[in-house]
Design a protein that fits this description.
The chain is of the alpha+beta class. Helices cover about 40% and strands about 15% of the residues. It has one domain. The chain is built from twelve helices and eleven strands. The chain has a five-stranded antiparallel β-sheet, with helices on both faces. It has a two-stranded antiparallel sheet with strand order 4-5. It has a two-stranded antiparallel ribbon with strand order 8-9. About 40% of the residues are buried.
Amino acid sequence: MMSLTTMSPSAWRYYVEEIARGREDYFAKGAERSGQFSGRGAEALGIAGHVANAVTLERLFGHGTDPRDGSALGRGFDPDNERAVAGFALTFSPPKSVSVLWALADKSASAEVLAAHEAAVRASMGFVEDHAAFTRRGHNGVLQVDTEGLLAASFLHRTSRAADPQLHTHVFVANKVRAEDGAWLALDGRELFATQKATGMLYKAALRTELTERLGLSWSAVDDDGAAEIEGVPPLLLDYWSARRHELKALGDELIANRSAKVGRSLSPNERAECFQIAAYRTRTAKVDADTPTEELRGHWRAEAEAWGLAPETWTADPGRTLKTPRSRLRFLGRDPGAIGRVIPGRKEDHRSVTVKSRNRFDQGKQKIIEREHRAQLLYPGRM
């Protein structure tokens, strides 16, 4: 799935503490990799692939300034203004069976799962940049114009708050884009929300394609939300680890409600995070936390699966690689340019296409997000 929320300048610290520094298990803590700047806007600044740390994130999301040196990028933000929009937080999460396979497969197959997830995120963000990286000019913003692209920071994570396997990527998109004339302006965030469902569908379809090509997996039927699970991954594993996450959320919601009633107001993002962190500590499995190295976590998850009689060897033909499911049941999308479009429902009654507003705001005609001649190239340029 792909979630999308706005970020205020004062809320950036929540994201840094909760995500970039590891409460949700920032990969750097496991010595795997650091968060990085990404997007065509970052490429234009020469910082794509550079480490996104607390200082650079504060400059960009806390003040609306250049992450490199703090210089102005047009009009800045008041870091204490709760109403200002500093950016947008996107989260890409694969189906639970994908995270389970990543957690329990051998190193080679696990690396392929991770690579497939990252490729699907890149394809999805490329789509967002093609269809939602605009700004507005003119009186009352009557004109929608192109920009250099998005200035973003991405963070890769491996666990849920309950320390269960949950591979996912956070992408923070700054509310700063540079127009073709060089002016730094606000991102037209409405297009992000207009393309949210299509982006999520595209991520899931691209992920299935990547995993099918890399590991030869088969999939369950695609549901109305574009989601499918890997066939052969035991449902009991999905149920157990999902149940623990639901337990944590229920406790976190209860703590938030109690604290809100006590103080007589809604809680801030930081206060909500504290409640969920308390819930995580109360429900988390002993000896497992965000600082635990990846291999140690994988060993712990394998031990749990074995204790339930669900070790990988019992449901894989070749441990960690080919699942024991008929190849004929595969839903393969990788070589049919029209297949991606068929699994992306429309936003209206037509469930065969998704439409977005045209780049030209004077032209209100609907256009398909994935046009026929570009469907395959959009996801995998040069591979068809």
